[in-house]
Design brief:
The structure is a single chain. This protein is α+β, with helices and mostly antiparallel strands. It has one domain. 24% of the residues lie in helices and 31% in strands. The protein has two helices and six strands. The strands form two sheets. It has a four-stranded mixed beta sheet, with helices on both faces. The chain is globular and about 30 Å long.
Length: 85
Amino acid sequence: MGRMINIGYGNVVNADKILAVVRPEAAPVKRMVAVAKDHDTYVDATCGRKCKSVIVSGEGRIVLSALLPETIAGRVNGKTGAEEP
């Protein structure tokens, strides 16, 4: 298993599997999330909070996170995020 990063509220993902971290507001991203929900290929890791980023993995799965994409990118790049919930 690869390096694990915290995506907020005690949830972690494998950093080696991440293809993209995007904001959920754009229409194509909303469609991607809707399709993933229909096919059960998503994980909601927001813990009941507002979704602020969508993590796309290389296996065609997506993960919803309550952290900003900039925070997650910083953690993937080895920097510590200022927002540590």
